[in-house]
Every structure is written in structure tokens, then in C-alpha cells.
Specification:
about 120 residues, mainly beta, four-stranded antiparallel β-sheet
């Protein structure tokens, strides 16, 4: 069982940077693959980034590739999402998710554990 709590959201201007954190409780965090997803008002939830626990393999949505970076610190049981060059279209509630499988995917239904979300608002 893993519990996830996101933090770091806020209101920023276009072009700014923000780092989201997701602290996990529970055992064997290092064995879980992790993902970040987001949901904008009136839109479906979409994948943003994912990180496997084996080999550190990462995946990114095309819309964030080159601007966002997912990383983890197993000693702190925390996963991060560094977001640079933010755009108004990045505005959404961001969720972290954990999958009890070392191989990450970009499919939300593969993840069994979810945080409560943190709001990111990017003004133009």
C-alpha cells in the first residue's frame, strides 16, 4: 500500500518554472514505477511523464518533452516533476501515481495509487 501526497503547485506566469513533489508513504517505494498526470477543466486526464524503477527509463508526452523532467529520490520516497518554460496550456490539476511494477507506462489505468492532486495555473 502506497499513499501519495503532492505539493508545489501554484500560480505562475508563462515562461516560469515550477517543481512539483510527491511524497510517498509505504514500503518498497523504490520498486514502484511512477507517473505524473494532469487534468484541465473540461478535459480528460492525460499523461505527462513516467519513470520506471528499473534503469531509470523515462517517458514524456510530446507536449512537455524538453520542458519537463521527472525524477525520483528513493531515499526520500519522493518523485518530482520539474516544469520549465511553462505555458498557459499547462494549467491543470497535476496528479502523481504509483504502479506496483518496475516498468512505467503512460496509461493511467495501469496505476493503482494516486495522490489528491495539486493545482498549477499558468497565466499569460
Amino acid at each position: 500500500q502506497v499513499q501519495l501526497v503532492e505539493s508545489g503547485g501554484g500560480l505562475v506566469q508563462a515562461g516560469d518554472s515550477l517543481r512539483l513533489s510527491c511524497a510517498a508513504s509505504g514500503r518498497f517505494f523504490s520498486a514502484y514505477s511512477l507517473g505524473w498526470f494532469r487534468q484541465a477543466p473540461g478535459k480528460e486526464r492525460e499523461s505527462v511523464a513516467a519513470l520506471s524503477s528499473i534503469g531509470g527509463v523515462t517517458y514524456y508526452a510530446d507536449s512537455v518533452k524538453g520542458r519537463f523532467t521527472i525524477s525520483r529520490d528513493n531515499a526520500k520516497n519522493t518523485v518530482y516533476l520539474q516544469m520549465n518554460k511553462l505555458k498557459p496550456e499547462d494549467t491543470a490539476v497535476y496528479y502523481c501515481a504509483a504502479r506496483r511494477n518496475p516498468i512505467a507506462t503512460m496509461r493511467d489505468y495501469d496505476y493503482g495509487y494516486w495522490g489528491q492532486g495539486t493545482q498549477v495555473t499558468v497565466s499569460s
